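From the pipeline queue, job 12 of 40. The input is one protein chain; the requested action is below.

Action: predict structure.
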Amino acid sequence: MNIGDKVVYPMHGAGEITGVEENEVGGVVSSYYVFRLPMGSLKLMLPVDKVDEVGLRELITPAQVEEVIKILTAETEQIQGSWNKRFQTNLERLKTGNILDAAAVARNLSRQNNKKKISSGERRLLDLSRQILISELVYVCGKTPEEITEWVDELIASGETEES
C-alpha cells in the first residue's frame, strides 16, 4: 500500500491513505497508516502490521456498481426475530467489509425505518451502513458525498415503491 491509495477499512468505509506515521504505544514504536475518510473528515490510524488482520481491501470497480444498484433496488429482506436479533445479523453483515452487505443493510433498515421507526441501535447501524456504502461510491463514481447520498436514497425508494 502506498500514500494516495484509496481502500476500504471495514466498519468505517472507504478512505485515502494520506501518510505513514510512527507512534509509541505502551513503550513500543510502530508504523501506522493514516487514513482520511471523505465523510465527516475522520482521521483513522491502522498499524501497518495489522492490515491483513482487519480486512483492508481495494475499492470495487466501476463495473461492480451495477451489483450495488441491484441490491439497493431489490426487495427488502425480512429478518425474523426480535430487534436485537436483527441488530446482530446486520452488525455481522457490516463486519464483512463487503459493499453488497452494507448496501443490503442500508436498504433494509431505511425501508423499515420509513414504515415504523427503528430502535436507536438499529439507527446507528443504518447510519454506519450508509457511511460505508456512500464513502466507497464517492471514490468509485467520482461524485460528492451529497450527490451519492441523494442517488442512494432514490435507488432505495425506487425499490420500496415496487414492493407496495
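Job complete. Residues 120-141 form the longest helix (22 residues).
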